[in-house]
Amino acid sequence: MILPIIGYGDPVLRKVCEPIAPDYPNLKETIADMYETMYNAYGVGLAAPQVGLPIRLFVIDTKPFGEDEDLSNEEQTQLKGFRKTFINAKMIKEEGEEWGFNEGCLSIPEVREDVYRHEQITIEYDDEDFNRKIEVFDGLIARVIQHEYDHIEGILFTDKISSLKKQLIKKKLQNIMDGKARPDYRMKFVAPKKGR
Questions:
Q1: CA–CA dist 50, 6 (Å, integer)
Q2: Which of these is catalytic: 110, 124, 148, 153?
Q3: Exposed, middle or buried by CB within 10 Å (0-12, 13-18, 19+), for 134?
Q4: In this predicted model, what pLDDT tens digit does every residue of 3-44 receive, in sequence order?
Q5: CATH for 84
Q6: Active site at which residues (predicted)?
Q7: Which residues are annotated as a binding site?
């Protein structure tokens, strides 16, 4: 089922999310709905707070990045094959050079900015079957994981840009809060425009 994506300004996007247990109600359906919602919106990642759930869960599929012809065949193959569910994730290490990349967010439509993140991460998480894993990721995969991990910590990519850039996008952010954004996927806004 395609769920509405929660828009910028909703308090759920600012919550530090709670861990969940294997008996969390309807977990398999929630995960399936999150993937379906993400694909419907042409995203590469989606965190539970973006569908209104303050839990430590996010899903990632970097296949769209694998279409980039500027990348090596190895990088393309790696990105095309990366699809993972992260439950109760805990960032252990972020290291290496910080590098910039133009990021967007399904909860903040029509806003894209360069964000600097570490090249490599070590993360501990449970998979869909609650097997505990510790893995190291780098490059674009690490970046997508960091972006989604921030969501479960109540952090948005707009928190990582300069004060000047924040001023420049202030009107766009207000429009999202006012329900005036028009993405081509379902959204739930803080203050929907009257008459919608």
A1: 5
A2: 148
A3: exposed
A4: 999 999 999 999 999 999 999 999 999 999 999 999 999 999
A5: 3.90.45.10
A6: 148
A7: 105, 147, 151
